[in-house]
Amino acid sequence: MLKKSKKGKVLSKSKGFTLIELLVVMAIIAILVTLMIWAINTARMQSRNTQRRSNITSMKAALESYYSSKKDYPGTVGTDINIVNLKALFPTYATFDVEDPRGATDDNRSCYSKVSRNQYNLRILPEPETLGTCANTLAVGEDFSIQ
Predict the structure, then answer these.
(1) Entry's Gene3D superfamilies (predicted)?
(2) Which domain holds residue 83?
(3) I need a labelling partner for 62 at 20 to 30 A (CA). Which of 31, 36, 40, 102 fits?
(4) Position 6 in a domain
């Protein structure tokens, strides 16, 4: 039997939330947190890809500076060189940053190759990592290559 207050209002026996109400609120919070984490990770990935674009532009400028003084690009024709090792080929001109923004040391994600005396290929693959490696053909997606 329900009790009535002095003013005639019905008093409830429970003073808390039901289990269903708590579960619904927790599910909504979990969905919001998941969306926030996904958005943050996407923004971080785009930021690292922007840094890679900047790095490849700096590398191109260093290679062109080397070419203007030597009338040749560094390296041997037909040899793929990891970008980490590229800096050692022309240390005087190489003022660019060779570290991957992610901190990875994967040798297959960035490479330089001299095609001829006056032509080169420079490639840094962006994230996500499912896009392939420098050694094989790219699947789909962006490629920060300069030829």
Answers:
(1) Glycoprotein, Type 4 Pilin (3.30.700.10)
(2) 20-131
(3) 102
(4) no
